[in-house]
Amino acid sequence: MKYVFLLLIAMCTSTPALADSAPCTSTQSAVVSHFVTHNNEYGGHVNAHVYGQTPPAGYTQNNKTMFANDQYYAQAWDALTQQNPPLYCSNNPQVGNEAARSITFQLASRQCTAANPAGICTAYNNVNTGYVRFTFRAVPKGPGSLGAKWILYVAYPASTP
């Protein structure tokens, strides 16, 4: 009886949170914002961590650990989408809410050691990393809209979780 009671408590405390949320990787605005071609315009700075991409204004790739190319970043995203259980994002977030997860993912990455005035990496060291950190953030929906939408705010390879 004690175990049934504990199971019932666990179901009651976890179900409402999941009922009002969805996997971050299937939230429409987060899906669109994960593409390097859209991330800057959605308010993210993933491109500060992808070699060969231009970081958004005010960001630099200097001193950043970066994906060696777009394909490695895409592979890491695919790995995140396969996580079970998935990383959940609230259906009604407040601006500034975040959801984050580090996944185990072995990569040959780059550590930027110099960047040009636009923040684009011009010199780097090759490094091996074992994790990728993903952070989703709730941002304003846009002019004249109330509420928030989820974007992939940043993703980067790391040596530690």
> How would you write the strand order of the largest sheet?
2-4-5-6
Helix content: 25-40%
Distance separating the two termini: 39 Å
Strand content: 35-45%
Largest sheet: 4 strands, antiparallel
Sheet/helix structural class: alpha+beta
Tell me the number of strands: 6
Could you characterize the architecture of this molecule?
There is one protein chain. The protein is α+β, with helices and mostly antiparallel strands. The protein has one domain. It is 27% helix and 36% strand. The chain is built from 4 helices and 6 strands, in the order H-E-H-H-E-H-E-E-E-E. It has helices spanning 2-19, 28-34, 36-42, 70-81; strands spanning 21-23, 65-67, 88-90, 98-115, 121-140, 148-158. It has a 4-stranded antiparallel β-sheet with strand order 2-4-5-6, with helices on both faces. A hairpin with a 5-residue loop joins strand 4 and strand 5. The longest helix is centred in the N-terminal third of the chain and has 18 residues, at 2-19. The termini are far apart. The model is unreliable at 1-16 (pLDDT under 50).
Summarize the structure.
By secondary structure, this protein is an alpha+beta fold. The chain contains four helices and six strands. It is 27% helix and 36% strand.
Summarize the helices and strands and which ones pair or pack.
Blueprint: H1 2-19, E1 21-23, H2 28-34, H3 36-42, E2 65-67, H4 70-81, E3 88-90, E4 98-115, E5 121-140, E6 148-158
Antiparallel strand pairs: 1-3, 2-4, 4-5, 5-6
